[in-house]
What does this fold into?
Amino acid sequence: MHKPIPKRIVPPVRPVGRIPAASPASADPPAEKGSIGTLAFSIMLHGAIIAVAVILVVSEILIKPPEETFTPPEKRVQLPAQLREQALSNAKHDAAAPRPSYSQRMASKAPSPVVVPAMPDVDLKQMLPLDPSELVSDQISGMIGASGYGRGTGRGLGGGGGTGKGSGLAFFDIKDSAKSLVIMIDVSQSMFTRTGDYDGSTRKLLKVGKDQAFHVIRLEAIKLINGLGPDTRFGIIRWSGSARSWKPELVRATDENKAAARAHIETEVDANSAPPTGGKPGGTRHDYALTELLRLNPETAFMLTDGNATASQPGGGMTTIPAKTLTGLLESASEERETLPRIHTIYYLTGGDKKEEEDMLKDIARKTKGRFRKVEAAGLAAAQKQKEKDQDRRDDRRR
It folds into this structure.
């Protein structure tokens, strides 16, 4: 009897490529052991590295002290006290001046096809009844008192070219501002004869010093000098047969120089104080006076005269100096320099005034962009009355 063969249990064959279905007891496979701890450690490590880097950067920028660098000391230049004060004074004075203005218009020297008719001869006072310089000078005088000293607002007017202005100036009611000036006074015999200060027949002074009618001119010049500021330079010219300057060059308006100038005006600016010299012809030489003015080269000048520009002749007598000679002298000078002194002319009326003399002085002022003014001579009326009395006495004697 055969034994029965045991039946082999063959496991079912799993199809290739098929994924077994998930067990209904768990949908997700279990997490691997230690994965959460590794992630946490990595995060902590990176955080620590970043924190250390931040600390190093902050300490490098904010905590580390800056490196010291050696800078050699600058070389100091020490000026003497007087030069330093003078330099500071000049710098302060120049800084007070306004900047020059420039015209936006173009100018040309080329001939124009359009012919413009000549301008009529108009009195300067009618052309400019109110001088802007008077407003400036009045404001300066009101700010600093009766002395008339003050700072100006510009480098110069007209022929003066330039500039800043300096002391407030006034001479026989002509006002200006400048850093340099010259007072020009005619001391010819006609300035004294017609006002009763001088006897032309005997060539002797009838009055001297403060008793002269001419002394009014001295007082005006002294008042102008007293009002000059210390940074202003000035000079004095008197002329007749020659032109004589008080100093060879312009001087600063220090107290010492102003005192010397006052003494010069009171004692030396008088009749016959400028006779011919150097063998040159005499007369009343306005041309000599203008030549000396151009040599001193101030910014502005006040020229006072009774007209009567004459030149003596070799055979005797006098001849009139033409106005064109004087203006031509200024025109020639303007070709050799950038600017001319601004010349204000004062026609001192002594009774012998003439239209041609007035026109001559107007031309000088116009050529240099100055101002012109007439002033009646002091003592003229009294001298005329005295002359009439003397004539009556002579008539009585003849009778």
